[in-house]
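Forwarding these from the shared drive since the link keeps breaking.
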Amino acid sequence: MHDARPGRSRRALAAGISVAAAALLLPSPAAAHGLGGTRTLPIPEWLFAWAAAIVLVVSFVGLSILWPRPRLAQLAEGRSWAVPAPVRHGGRVVLGLLGVALWVLTVWAGLTGTENIQANLAPTMVYVAFWVGLPVLSLFVGDLWRALSPWRAIADAAGWIGRRVGGEDALPAPMTWPARVGLWPAAAVLLAFAWLELAAPDKDAPDLLGLLALLYGAAMLIGSGIWGTRFLDHADGFDRYFRLAASLSPLRWADGRLHVRWPGTGLAGVRPEPGLAAVVLVLVGSTTFDGLSGGELWTANGAPGVWLTDRFSDLGLGASGAATAAATVGLAVTLGLVSGFVRLGIAGVRSVDPTRLRSRELMGRFAPTIVPIAVGYAVAHYISLLAQRGQTLGFLLSDPRGTGSDWFGTAGWGVDYGLLSGNSVWYVQVVALVLGHVAGLVAAHDLALRTFRGPRSAARSQYWMLAVMVAFTSLGLWLLS
């Protein structure tokens, strides 16, 4: 009998490229939106088109021809150097204390300081330094959060003190984390934070952020007391996000050694777990909605955001409640569309060899290859926010409660709004998006070579992921423009 699967693959590829091409021709009225950040100027059309072309060239020429066998795991080995024990332990203690101090300072400033969001440390610490700054820093220095996490530091200190006082058997053994639960709690945490950031009323209120930071820390400590610090590996959504970002870093700290590897190769070591795909899709989908909700596609007269707000107002909700309900629906729909599109791509990947793996298994395997897209979206979307509002930490740390103190002599510092010019922001955004998608394509191609029989089947499976990557590139650039 004639095998029609290659024909279906070619037709699907053509359809995917047609969708991507149509996306390139969309008008570009939207403006980037991000936690009170500044608007960026439109990206030039030629830069827009070349970005998508680079993804195509790298995927087809650079991978299908020049990458015939799996190499990512080998490239990830790199070189390593032993870190002296005093430096290792001392650094961990110092960073742990710093993390605890910053957490306590954020809670204290939020609960007792001024309600002026520009003068209180809590909003900037939560939305800029923590949510945006840490993943960007993780790209360069590795998994810094593992040493900086205040609840991990407190849990480790409590365990050390307990063993010193009562002996090795003084503390009860932690419960085993259920394998089938996996990372679903982490995905739920990230979804809740996305809702807080993008839909909740008074999301910038310092007292609200201080209270939530306190409650979240308490929940992490209670969980660590029951399941040990393994609880943080699975239930702390931020821990998982920062660790995924660190998998793209050229540095890895493990086993008392500093490992240096090619950037992005750490994706080969990300182990598939239940809920990992949900974590990654929440990251991509929430950033996509953040960009969408700040543009005319959502806010113009007759746009979905305005229409939904009006409908909820007709149901009797006040202005704030209607806006929150509309944003909640928009976030849910965006997450659903992004997830559905990725799952469609995975279904196409499976069509190459339907007997090999189920779609759910393939989704879990290929989820790490979407990490570079999520991180690239975040860097591109929030770079201007980080460059400008990040500078305010200089004076906010001296006066965290906005009461006129000057602890470090920096309360008079200002903000240099020319630190990144408009053109510089464009180029950083485009480079972040393109590099993110190129890294995702490399990881997906390498994984396909390890999953399917032979380079030809692996290349055919990547037609589908190529369509997904190009469509995400086009969408990301369009939202930024």
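-- next protein --
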Amino acid sequence: MSALLAHQGGWDEILLIAGPIAVIAGLLMLAKRRVDAGAETRDAEKV
């Protein structure tokens, strides 16, 4: 029974890689949105 649970077809290993990549990508998208919003605010203040 434990041999069956030890190997699950690779989906768990994929999550170990894809999970952190997804978190980092999400944080980068959030940071870009904040930078873009700040740039719009600065441009509006110049005019």
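The chain is about 85% helix and 0% strand. The radius of gyration is 21 Å.

- D.
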